[in-house]
Design goal:
The structure holds 2 protein chains of 2 kinds. Chain A has 22 helices and 50 strands. By secondary structure, chain A is an alpha+beta fold. In chain B, a hairpin with a 3-residue loop joins strand 1 and strand 2. The longest helix of chain B has 8 residues. The chains are: A alpha+beta, B mainly beta.
Chain lengths: 929, 83
């Protein structure tokens, strides 16, 4: 218990005490405290256990680079693991707990790992758990995951909400220290819009011009192309849990960017340098000046540069003792001598700390004097500074490689992202004054940590080199150095320097690894923002949805659409319901919402010519008031989509597409119009959502519709024959479009009204058809009927079939150019041996055929080489029994033959007869009734 | 990445859809062109570093097809034109 709150000082609000809990114990801090400062103020030294060796760890830093003090915040579903105590602001009621310890922080049973550490050296996973191989998944991996590791996931759905937004500015300033503040003010004075981000909470009021939008608690974590920056704003993490958005992901679009992120201090590498009570010198100063917290009473300062000497007067002014200054430079500087003299502390020049002493926390330091004599100094805090590294992670997010500076002994920014400028310490200005590097203090029997978070020691790096892993990228992967959540912010440069020492290559030749986004960890929830559940995948409801609900429909998702699948009556399963619906349509009349098919309104003097370009068949000769089936290919000759297109006027067509391809066809038409045939005067727009379209199918469909159409429209077979279309009014003046087209194979119509009348139209049709026993039918019945009729749909239009494969080759016009014409004519795409559409029926008339089954010649072995095709669609027809549509090599020539239907996944093996794909009414007489 | 749409101004890349190389042109004389010309148009692509012309579709914006000249090694957008 050596840390305490100083009597005065700091920017915390001493009038506002804050109560929080850590590992179940109550503590008090003040408004403005971080968890780290409040724990230090309460004398707590150990806040976590290390990743691999379960060594007690304290607080090393005062910022986002913290490798040790990772904690879990909050409880239950709100629990968040691996949060840096140095960044977490406390609030009344905060529950925090330490990680990776069992059963407690003070006594961790797995600390035995420390004794077995020879096992856990660099590459230990690769060496130790290789054999037997099958043990890996079942035994080794779960064991390692339990023992090593960080915090626990909440294991529950994230109850917090997140926001996303975009911010635009002329200048983005990252970092609100002195350099950033000055840059922001200067930019604002020139009259431009400025956004200033800082990852910390503001402790003092910030006075900035109106033009500057200041975003505190906001970490800019990535740089992207075109002046795009990703920032995470922690909105309410510093407040008790509430329903308010927790974090906001802001995309900042900036004309230019000024990086003022300062520099991060390097720890010194010596024995037991991970012991709680060893802290970065700058962090000690921050705790004293910013938080009014003394992390210890008796400080030994270990440095190799002049910057860190500034800590001496800070310590003294807080009433603490500087017991001595250990300066690794052979000749310490005048500044150090002067400040130490004022503080009454001896300076040991050319000396190093060889190890920290103490059991669970620092009780002293062993130093080796210039001459080699060792000396033990009592202390409770070792403040270290191995120099500073410009904080330039963001400069390397854009292919920029940091450059080694021989005078500063650190990396400075290399090639910058376009529009970025680096200022102040981040640019290497005013840091590492009079530095003489001291990358480590030599071998010591014990551990000298280089990467605290991943427990990588001096010895591990040397070992990696001995074992042949000498390139910086190999060392990183072999030792896991720099791969933890802190990305080695405090570790990388020390590690590189040590590596160059063992390889004998200078640092510029050794190179460095580059930082990648994100700068600090970002919750996946924040990246998803509000786009989750139905906000990620919204539901499109058919305009007859309410009607279908009232009719007891079971719905199915088709893309974003929710469609009525079948309408079960009491006691019916899906099959019974669908078969009843089919029977009713075949014998009487039924209705089905077909709004989900894409509808594209095409107008203009060249509309017909345009259709000639995109469809394979001809259109200029289609009369007004007529509908035609159209086939669309991709340029490579394969079928893209199909549908019917109606000519409502000389210059006006309405195209339908399949439900799945609606958006794709629209995009395709726009490409054809804007890129390929810009000379054609044609316009089009999607009207899928504007018209509710209902199929009315069955022998009684005309009599049903006749009750709805307004006079004088004549719906008789003579006046409105098969494949006719018209604009008319229904139900006493409602605008409508009527198409005499049929997917079911029966006498049928599709009627379209403005979408808002969808439910009303369905109800009117039910009333009108009541005397004929009308029923609504769903996608199951629709599917059965189209398979009975041999109509190709999604499973056949699978992107691998040609017009020839689908028996539609007669639709390939020879008189015009159209998309796909040239390549569809390639010999291999028209070969008879290609899998081609046929029908199948089980030879026994009973066995259910299943889509996906493979087709094999009789007597052939069931191997891939003998595979001749597959079943694309299968149905159980109420009138015909089990039937299927298949793609079979040489199919049409083999009608009448038998084939083996082999379905090893579902134990199916049966014989089927190859038949015409049009199982039902092959002559089509019912269509014309 | 941001693309300056001639109709909508500079917009985020998430509004656009990259579809294909714009360095190739569809054979003019539709039916008569030799198959090789067609296969070159549909399949053959140079995979070169540096500025390339690409078709981008402003799918959640104005639905314009754009010819974007982009340096494929730096993502720099050098030019945006209507086809």
């Amino acid at each position: 218990m050596s840390g305490f709150r100083t009597a005065t000082g700091g920017l915390i609000d001493r009038a506002k005490p804050v109560n929080f809990r850590f590992d179940g114990k109550n503590y008090q801090g003040y408004a403005g405290d971080t968890l780290a400062s409040a724990l230090l103020a309460n004398g707590v030294k150990i806040v976590g256990r290390s990743f691999k060796y379960h060594r007690p760890r304290g607080i090393l830093s005062a910022g986002s680079e913290e490798p040790n003090a990772l904690v879990e915040l909050r409880t239950g579903a709100h629990r968040e693991p691996n949060t840096r105590a140095t960044m977490a602001e406390i609030y009344n009621g905060l529950e925090a707990s330490s990680q990776n310890r069992f059963p407690s922080l003070k006594f961790d049973a797995l600390a035995v790992n420390d004794l077995f550490s020879p096992f856990f050296a660099a590459g230990f996973y690769y060496k130790t758990f290789m054999w037997p191989a099958k043990f890996w998944e079942k035994f080794y991996e779960p064991m390692i995951r339990r023992a090593a590791g960080l915090g626990r996931n909440a294991g529950l759905p994230d109850p917090d909400s997140y926001e996303k937004t975009t911010e635009f500015c002329d200048v983005l300033v990252i970092g609100a220290g002195a350099d950033g503040m000055r840059a922001a003010r200067e930019a604002a004075a020139s009259g431009v819009r400025v956004v200033l981000c800082d990852e910390n909470a503001p402790l003092a009021p910030v006075d900035l011009p109106d033009r500057v939008k200041f975003l505190p608690r906001t970490t800019v974590f990535a740089v992207y192309d075109g002046g795009t920056y990703a920032a995470l704003e922690r909105l309410t993490d510093h407040l008790p849990v509430s329903s308010a958005p927790r974090q906001r992901l802001t995309k900042i679009i900036a004309g230019r960017c000024i990086l003022a992120t300062g520099a991060l201090e390097r720890p010194m590498v010596f024995g037991h340098n991970d012991k709680p009570g060893v802290m970065l010198a700058g962090a000690v100063a921050t705790y004293i000046t910013r938080y009014g917290v003394a992390p210890g009473r008796n400080v030994v300062l270990f440095l190799n540069n002049d910057d860190a000497a500034g800590l001496i007067p800070v310590v003294v002014s807080a009433g603490l003792a500087i017991s001595s200054v250990v300066d690794s430079r052979e000749k310490s500087s005048d500044l150090v001598y002067q400040l130490a003299r004022e503080a009454g502390a001896p300076v040991f020049a050319g000396a190093v700390i060889t190890r920290a002493l103490g059991c669970q926390s620092v009780k002293g330091a062993e130093i080796r004097l210039h001459g080699g004599t060792t000396l033990r100094l009592p202390c409770d805090l070792v403040a270290t500074s191995g120099g500073f590294n410009p904080n330039i992670a963001l400069t390397s997010h854009f292919d920029g490689k940091p450059v080694w500076d021989d005078a500063l002994y650190t990396f400075v920014p290399g090639k910058l992202p376009p529009g970025m400028e680096v200022v102040g310490k981040a640019a290497g200005q005013g840091i590492n004054i009079n530095i003489k590097p001291c990358w480590h203090v030599g071998a010591y029997p014990g551990k000298s940590f280089v990467d605290f978070q991943n427990d990588v020691t001096l010895k591990d790096i040397k070992l990696a080199h001995q074992e042949g892993f000498s390139s910086v990228e190999h060392v990183k992967r072999y030792t896991t150095l720099g791969m933890a959540t802190d990305q080695g912010k405090t570790a990388n440069v020390n590690a590189l320097a040590i590596l160059t020492e063992v390889t004998g290559k200078p640092i510029p030749e050794t190179g460095t690894t580059r930082f990648r986004p994100p700068y600090t960890p970002v919750a996946l929830g924040a990246l998803a923002g509000p786009h989750k559940g139905k906000h990620f995948k919204p539901t499109r409801l058919a305009p007859t949805h309410e009607f279908s609900q009232a009719q007891g429909a079971v719905f199915v998702e088709t893309g974003l659409w929710l469609r009525a699948q079948y309408y079960p009556r009491p006691g019916e399963d899906w099959l019974a319901a669908a078969q009843r619906e089919v029977n009713t349509v075949r014998n009487h009349v039924g209705i089905c919402d077909v709004t989900t098919l894409g509808k594209i309104d095409i107008q203009g003097p060249d509309a017909a010519k345009f259709l000639e370009c995109v469809y394979t068949n001809s259109w200029t000769n289609l009369a007004v008031g007529r509908v035609r089936y159209g086939l669309m290919l991709r340029e490579d000759g394969f079928v893209m989509d199909d549908g019917t297109t109606a000519r409502l006027g000389e210059q006006h067509f309405v195209m339908t597409t399949t439900t799945a391809n609606a958006a794709k066809v629209m995009q395709h038409l726009e490409f054809c119009s804007q890129v390929l045939w810009p000379e054609l005067d044609v316009s089009f727009i999607s009207v899928t959502d504007q018209w509710a379209q209902i199929a009315v199918a069955g022998p009684d469909s005309r009599a049903t519709l006749a009750k709805l159409v307004d006079a004088p429209f004549d719906i008789s077979n003579e006046a409105f024959p098969y494949m006719g279309c018209a604009e008319l009014t229904v139900c006493g003046g409602t605008a409508a479009r009527l198409f005499r087209i049929s997917f079911s194979g029966e006498l049928a119509y599709e009627i379209a009204v403005p979408a808002r009348y969808g439910n009303a139209l369905a109800e009117k049709l039910m009333e009108a058809g009541a005397e004929f026993g009308i029923v609504p039918y769903g996608t199951e019945a629709l599917g059965i009927m189209r398979i009975e009729k041999g109509h190709a749909a999604g499973p056949e239009l699978n992107g691998q079939t040609t017009a020839h494969d689908l028996g539609l080759h007669k639709l390939l016009s020879k008189k015009k150019d159209f998309i796909g014409r040239a390549l569809a004519a390639r010999p291999a795409l028209t070969e008879a041996s290609r899998p081609t559409l046929v029908g199948l029926k089980p030879v026994d008339g009973l066995t259910v055929l299943r889509a996906g089954s493979h087709l094999l010649p009789l007597g052939a072995e069931a191997v891939a080489a003998n595979d001749q095709g597959h079943i694309a669609s299968a149905a159980r027809s109420p009138s015909l029994g089990p039937i299927a549509l298949a793609l079979l090599a040489n199919g049409p020539a083999r009608i009448g033959e038998q084939i083996r239907v082999y379905d090893p996944v579902r134990n199916g093996d049966t014989l089927a007869e190859i038949v015409n794909p049009v199982h039902y009414d092959p002559s089509g007489s019912r269509l014309h009734a | 990445m941001r693309i300056p749409c001639p109709h909508c101004g500079p917009r985020g890349v998430e509004e656009f859809l990259y579809t294909q190389d714009a360095e190739v042109t569809r054979p003019k004389d539709g039916g008569a062109a030799p198959t090789k010309e067609w296969t070159d148009y549909v399949y053959m692509r140079d995979n070169l570093k540096g500025p390339r012309k690409e078709y981008w579709y402003h799918s959640t914006g104005c639905h314009a097809w754009l010819v974007v000249t982009r340096d494929v090694s730096t993502h720099e957008i050098l030019k945006v034109e209507l086809p």
